[in-house]
């Protein structure tokens, strides 16, 4: 059933019908407005990686099962492989490239290095975006909670105990 | 004699840590290439039969589509070289078969078409429009379907190992036993699933091609693709700096690398080809489904009199492949009689391949579970049984071990784990609804040497900073970090003035880093190059009448922080080069592995301990803690070594409880070809892991005595967990993975 009514969408104003050919999409990524010419079917992940040269978010499965593509939309963690870029207009997208303050790494990035919370590094941007969000969400009170709420991000090198150590270190530093 | 200088042995953070946590580390698919186009592979729906027609009309008509290539129009390859493990330094295709050369389908997912378009979305959509008709025959894929057709091959594992291994007389040995254990173990197939899918970008410039590849060896990619395309090695360059995990899936050079190059040549544009997650199950090999039968014989006092170890597994139509599951069982215990036989049968599968601890992880599950049963039969502590069968020499060759440390691993592992005082009776410990058990197992992994010389290059600049180079990629091992440490020590410099550059065939040749051989062979080459450069600079100074070191005996010169000193005379590398108006100095180093019979048995040893809790009603197994003690020779960087060993141990947990794939007997396809269906350990599965390093000196394996940590961590873990499950519940589960239904 096709219903086009702005008051039926949960996120506010319904989007105009655009496409299927390339259309102009304006995204705010890491605080900067970027304009792209993309087809509406382009995922946020592919828009970032193939069109904006922001390759920090990774494509591990393109099916929402691995978590390597985790970014924030308006501060909430989302799987960018299952998010259409077009739907992010008017929202703030943050990727791992936007986490550090210039040369100054985010505390979580420092903790990942100090705890050796990665090996190949491919899942690391997604892990870090999840880990920072996890603390904000208040889901890091103990290891059992961290384990549960970090299980959407697979690390095939299995650095999990060190990922937990990094999260604990940042949590405890903040208290 | 190698002196140990300050950097080696330090727990340094990874030198590429900043790149990896900020997202600036570029993996193969992330190099911006102007005019890039996108290739998407189409796999066969059927597992056995013939393609009778491919209708690509709709696909070709789609906007942005540049080419649709099938067996009907793809240019033939020059040749498909035989399968030889990539450590060999020759062409190393994953199988002796190259797709899209004819209409025959040997296995499901076999690549049958490539679509190239100007955007990824257009290529993906066009690929979905291709209609293929088949003449389908029933597939043969499972052990039960092929069991009757099994044969004993002359050689397995790319021709590197015999199909039958024996010593003494097994019948006599088993007849002499007071106690016998005879058990059969079954194993689901496993898929590597590194999080970075395999793939290749190809960019032609005239008759030269540049590949960016996800590979364990850029040279292996170069040599393999050059042979397949029939082009000179000098015309192909391969770059692969960062690789997002491999675990063996990128150890051999699978067909997508050459297909990307062929597609790029056809469309006259650079092409990026990235496998989908689903294609990762059908394009890069796997650990084969298998069955292993072990018979142990022992005297009443626990001495082994015979070990019989037979394996049955499917291989492809093209290669006699079986992972070497019978490699450690004849070596780890002193036993005069051994009989090992591989039996394989042809099936509708691609050739299986290396997967972390290939053979050791599966073979030692069987042996170490059987040893636990034997300990039970004998009423003997499992560690005591193993200690009684320790061998001071390699049992197969009679040669002494180049180094061992196994006894120390048992003792220190047991102490850290708290093994002493364990009540051996099963089902005695209960906490609420959880049955608690503990188990242990031995670990062994062969020290594998490359057959060819390994090279590296060191360059000192006139400002006193150095760059050391070798072709190897970094797929998570930390090679860039530890080689910086090795180079700094050999040059007598501080770490921050030394940089390791890698991942490019324009750099000196290194064999693919497989078989846990990477740190040993690369450190040998880097050490050799850096030492050669240091000696060259010392000779230059002592022979230079303008140098304060003039006339000093080069052997008396020591170097620290880049300053050469002999008695009171001092001169830095930088001062020497600047005075001589020399922008830099350079040396190449070569390490030639000992060929032939080194005169020693060479193996890395360890001991694994596990504590599990099993829900008494639901059969749910939770691993509460793991302890592993390992003796990997010299440890170049304990922090990184522990991480890799921990990762291996958690792979063992996945092998024990989670990782399973099955071929459907009717469709011939994998039952689970996604990370939603093929389960790997996630954070919630992973307990804290305790890793103990038992350093042993080894002057045989390579100049620095490094035996490697990539795989030994996984060996034995599944057995320790299964033995702990038995201890908790009294039930022997002789299959992997152990599932809830096995314990209900």
UniProtKB/TrEMBL annotation, chain A:
All residue ranges annotated as the 2Fe-2S ferredoxin-type domain in the record: 23-99
Read off the CDD domains from this record: fer2
* Keyword check for Oxidoreductase: yes
Q: Which UniProt keywords apply?
A: 2Fe-2S, Iron, Iron-sulfur, Metal-binding, Oxidoreductase
Which portions of the chain have biased composition (kind: Basic and acidic residues)? 7-19
GO MF entry, a single one: 2 iron, 2 sulfur cluster binding
InterPro entries cross-referenced by the UniProt entry: 2Fe-2S-bd (IPR002888), 2Fe-2S-bd_dom_sf (IPR036884), 2Fe-2S_ferredoxin-like_sf (IPR036010), 2Fe-2S_ferredoxin-type (IPR001041), 2Fe2S_fd_BS (IPR006058), Aldehyde_Oxdr_Iron-Sulfur (IPR052914), Beta-grasp_dom_sf (IPR012675)
Pathway listed for it? Alkaloid degradation; nicotine degradation
Regions that span the bilayer = none
Write down the Pfam families for this protein, in alphabetical order.
Fer2 (PF00111), Fer2_2 (PF01799)
Question: Which intervals of the chain are annotated as region Disordered?
Answer: 1-22
Read off the PANTHER family from this record: OXIDOREDUCTASE WITH IRON-SULFUR SUBUNIT, OXIDOREDUCTASE, IRON-SULPHUR BINDING SUBUNIT-RELATED-RELATED
Q: What is this protein called?
A: (2Fe-2S)-binding protein
Which species does this protein come from? Streptomyces brasiliensis
Upper lineage ranks? Bacteria, Bacillati, Actinomycetota, Actinomycetes, Kitasatosporales
UniProtKB/TrEMBL annotation, chain B:
Q: Where are the transmembrane segments?
A: none
The entry's keywords: Molybdenum, Oxidoreductase
Single annotated GO MF: iron ion binding
Xref: InterPro entries: Ald_Oxase/Xan_DH_a/b, Ald_Oxase/Xan_DH_a/b_sf, Ald_Oxase/xanthine_DH-like, AldOxase/xan_DH_MoCoBD1, AldOxase/xan_DH_MoCoBD2, AldOxase/xan_DH_Mopterin-bd_sf
All copies of domain Aldehyde oxidase/xanthine dehydrogenase a/b hammerhead, residue ranges:
22-138
Q: Which SUPFAM superfamilies match?
A: CO dehydrogenase molybdoprotein N-domain-like, Molybdenum cofactor-binding domain
- Give a yes or no for keyword Metal-binding in this entry: no
Q: What is this protein called?
A: Carbon-monoxide dehydrogenase large subunit
Organism whose genome encodes this protein: Streptomyces brasiliensis
């Amino acid at each position: 059933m096709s219903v086009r009514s702005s008051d039926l969408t949960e996120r506010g104003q319904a989007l105009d019908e655009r496409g299927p050919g390339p259309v102009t999409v304006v995204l705010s990524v890491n605080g900067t407005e970027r304009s792209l010419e993309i087809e509406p079917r382009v995922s946020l992940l592919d828009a970032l990686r193939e069109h904006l040269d922001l390759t920090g978010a990774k494509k591990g499965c393109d099916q929402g099962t691995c978590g390597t593509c985790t970014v924030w939309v308006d501060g909430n963690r989302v799987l960018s492989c299952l998010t259409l870029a077009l739907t992010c207009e008017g929202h703030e997208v943050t990727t791992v490239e936007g986490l550090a303050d210039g040369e100054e790494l985010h505390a979580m990035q420092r903790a990942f290095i100090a705890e050796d919370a990665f090996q190949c590094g491919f899942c690391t941007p997604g892990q870090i975006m999840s880990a920072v969000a996890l603390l904000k969400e208040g889901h890091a009170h103990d290891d059992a909670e961290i384990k549960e709420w970090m299980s959407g991000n697979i690390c095939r090198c299995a650095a999990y105990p060190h990922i937990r150590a990094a999260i604990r270190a940042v949590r405890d530093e903040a208290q | 004699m190698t002196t140990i200088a300050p950097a080696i042995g330090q727990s340094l953070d990874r030198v590429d840590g900043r790149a990896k946590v900020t997202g600036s580390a570029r993996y193969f698919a992330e190099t911006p290439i102007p005019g890039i186009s996108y290739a998407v592979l189409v796999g066969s729906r059927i597992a056995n039969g013939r393609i009778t027609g491919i209708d690509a009309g709709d696909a070709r008509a789609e906007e942005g589509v540049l080419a649709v290539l099938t067996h009907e129009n793809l240019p033939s390859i020059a040749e498909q070289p035989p399968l030889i493990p990539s450590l060999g330094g020759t062409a190393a295709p994953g199988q002796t078969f190259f797709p899209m050369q004819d209409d025959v389908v040997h296995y499901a997912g076999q690549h049958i078409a490539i679509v190239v378009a100007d955007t990824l979305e257009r290529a993906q959509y066009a690929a979905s429009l291709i209609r293929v008709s088949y003449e389908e025959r029933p597939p043969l894929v499972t052990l039960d379907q092929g069991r009757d057709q099994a044969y004993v091959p002359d050689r397995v594992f790319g021709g590197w190992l015999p199909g039958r291994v024996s010593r003494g007389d097994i019948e006599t040995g088993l007849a002499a036993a007071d106690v016998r254990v005879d058990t059969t173990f079954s194993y689901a197939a496993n898929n590597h699933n590194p999080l970075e899918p395999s793939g290749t970008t190809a960019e032609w410039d005239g008759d030269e091609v540049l590949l960016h590849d996800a590979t364990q060896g850029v040279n292996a990619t170069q040599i393999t693709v050059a042979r397949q395309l029939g082009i000179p090695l000098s015309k192909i360059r391969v770059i692969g700096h960062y690789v997002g995990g491999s675990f063996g899936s990128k150890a051999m050079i699978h067909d997508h690398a050459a297909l990307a190059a062929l597609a790029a040549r056809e469309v006259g544009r650079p092409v990026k080809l990235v496998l989908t997650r689903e294609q990762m199950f059908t394009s890069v090999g796997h650990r084969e489904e298998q069955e292993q039968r072990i018979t142990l014989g022992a005297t009443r006092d626990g001495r082994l009199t015979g070990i019989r170890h037979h394996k049955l597994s499917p291989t492809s139509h093209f290669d006699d492949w079986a992972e070497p599951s019978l490699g450690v069982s004849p070596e780890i215990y002193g036993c005069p009689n051994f009989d090992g036989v591989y039996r394989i049968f042809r099936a509708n599968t691609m050739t299986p391949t290396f997967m972390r601890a290939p053979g050791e992880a599966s073979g030692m599950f069987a042996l170490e579970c059987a040893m636990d049963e034997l300990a039970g039969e004998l009423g003997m502590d499992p560690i005591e049984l193993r200690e009684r069968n320790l061998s001071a020499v390699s049992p197969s060759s009679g040669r002494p071990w180049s180094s061992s440390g196994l006894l120390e691993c048992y003792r220190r592992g047991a102490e850290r784990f708290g093994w002493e005082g364990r009540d051996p009776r099963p089902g005695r410990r209960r906490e609420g609804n959880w049955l608690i058990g503990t188990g242990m197992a031995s670990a062994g992994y062969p020290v594998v040497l490359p057959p060819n010389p390994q090279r590296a290059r060191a360059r000192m600049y006139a400002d006193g900073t150095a760059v050391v180079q070798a072709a190897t990629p970094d797929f998570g091992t930390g090679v860039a970090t530890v080689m910086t440490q090795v180079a700094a020590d050999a040059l007598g410099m501080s770490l921050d003035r030394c940089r390791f550059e890698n991942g490019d065939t324009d750099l000196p040749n290194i064999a693919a880093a497989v078989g846990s051989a990477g740190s040993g062979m690369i450190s040998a080459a880097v050490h050799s190059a850096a030492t050669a450069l240091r000696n060259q600079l010392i000779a230059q100074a002592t022979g230079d009448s303008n140098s304060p070191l003039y006339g000093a005996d080069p052997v008396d010169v020591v170097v620290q922080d880049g300053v050469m000193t002999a008695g009171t005379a001092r001169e830095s590398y930088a001062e020497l080069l600047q005075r001589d108006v020399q922008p830099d100095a350079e040396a190449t180093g070569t390490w030639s592995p000992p060929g032939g019979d080194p005169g020693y048995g060479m193996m890395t040893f360890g001991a694994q301990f596990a504590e599990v809790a099993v829900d008494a009603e639901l059969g749910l197994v939770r691993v509460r803690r793991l302890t592993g003690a390992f003796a990997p020779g010299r440890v170049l960087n304990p922090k990184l070594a522990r991480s890799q060993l921990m990762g291996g141990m958690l792979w063992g947990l996945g092998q024990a409880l989670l990782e399973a794939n099955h071929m459907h007997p009717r469709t011939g396809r994998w039952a689970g070809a996604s990370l939603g269906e093929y389960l790997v350990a996630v954070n919630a599965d992973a307990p804290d892991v305790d890793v103990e390093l038992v350093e042993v000196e080894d002057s045989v394996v390579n100049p620095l005595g490094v035996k490697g940590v990539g795989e030994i961590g996984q060996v034995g873990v599944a057995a320790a967990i299964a033995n702990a499950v038995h201890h908790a519940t009294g039930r022997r589960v002789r299959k992997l993975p152990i599932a809830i239904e096995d314990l209900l």
